[in-house]
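Section 3.1: Structural characterization of target chains.
Under the original work plan, the team committed to producing a structural model for every single-chain target entering the pipeline before any wet-lab resources were allocated. The record below documents one such target. The sequence was received from the expression subgroup and is listed exactly as submitted; it comprises 254 residues.
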Amino acid sequence: MNKVFTVLSCVFIMLLTSCQFSENIYINEDGSGKVKFSMDASEMMDVLDQLGENASDEMSKAVDSTIVFKDFLVEYKDSIANLSVGEQEKIKAMEDYKIHMVMDPDKKKMFFDLETDFDDASELRDMYKAMNSFNNLKGDDTASDNLPLSPFSSMGNEGSTLVSYSYDGTVFRRNAEIIDLEKHQKSLDSIDKSALMLGSSKYIINYHFPKAVKSFSKQGAMYSEDRKTVTYEVGFIDMLKDPEILNIEVVLED
């Protein structure tokens, strides 16, 4: 049971340091696919000393951990039953997800992947809800109530921004809409505290399609040789301040 909270503590540190975030979507012919959200904080491994002695000691050990939440719910059902109802619901929300965390001080590597399969692109909107459920886990009564706010707290069904996806076999769309301006501003105020650390971070989308890309609605995208993969990046803080900069339409070849 402690395994998930060890990974969780590492992810909290990653979220508030200079990271490269990537949204990777793989779509099959029938519209099903896989989504993987990744954070790469390898650059941070060179500045561990700045985090303080306790943080440095905690992160000096190599970690390579995978958590399949469907299995986790079965294996630790008795321990989970002792958590508060709210914590149980957060873990339950992760049921279809898998987490992979690697931290290797010797190789200066630190990254985190959260992934799941989907039957239809419309299900992708639940990704941010799952991310925030994981970020909000506390574990037990000894966990701090003052854990840092995830920079993704504004995303998802309960946040200020709703991100939705659609795919009809020819056109793929990603649409972000601010639905609560007041809540959005509050989330930005909290993120300002870590803006210096996140200022150099990028948010990168990597979309993989079963057919070649005919057109992409943003300038500056990069394509694979067969044009079935498109990559586009923006500043992470820019994306949080204006989520609509990643409103994207991709048209595939017939």
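The two ends are 49 Å apart (CA to CA).
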